[in-house]
Amino acid sequence: MTTTTHRTPADTMTAYFDAWQRHDAESLRDVLADDVVFDGPMGHVEGLEDNVASLRGLFGIVTAVTIRHVFVDGPEVATIYDLHTTATEAPMLTVNWAHVVDGRVTGIRAVFDPRPLLST
Fold first, then answer.
1. CATH architecture of the domain with residue range 9-118
2. What DSSP element (H or E) covers 15?
């Protein structure tokens, strides 16, 4: 069971994207809630274990994440970033909208154009 932390929502998302930069799926366990839900153009994932496994798979093609801007409104954090992958020529502009409670991400909605990934 996840415990409460004293991280702010912004700190939580910084830790989340730091783990992405390191391709460290195990560190995500420290920032994702047990019942985290992800929704995006290419799928829906529920629960900590399935989200960690999904991200571990994604790290196989991610070469970099370039954060452009972060917006914080209470527990809501929207991160705009360029997702660089081995599967696409150009970086993919992505928006990640996360809901953070007690230092843990409970929900993520990702918005991006999936067409470059689908044509590979």
1. Roll (3.10)
2. helix 9-22
